[in-house]
Amino acid sequence: MLWKCLLCGYRYDPDQGDPDGDVRPGTPFEYLPLDWACPECGAGKDMFRAVDEDLEELEEAAEEDGER
Ligand SMILES: [Zn+2]
Fold first, then answer.
1. What pTM was estimated for this model as a whole?
2. What protein residues have CB closer than 5 angstroms to ion ligand 1?
């Protein structure tokens, strides 16, 4: 399960954590500190939405993200 920032499209991968944010690999999104914010745009955790890796392309298409 990945978590995606609704503002900039950054994806939090629990397997990788957030090295820049001092989050160790293997940290579930739920375990992030409440003041953790998107490393790309600074959005709070409430701006993140869980995405299924298999469904992600569908979601991106629906949002007209255009990155892929
Ligand atoms: Zn962001």
1. 0.75
2. 5, 7-8, 10, 38, 40-41, 43
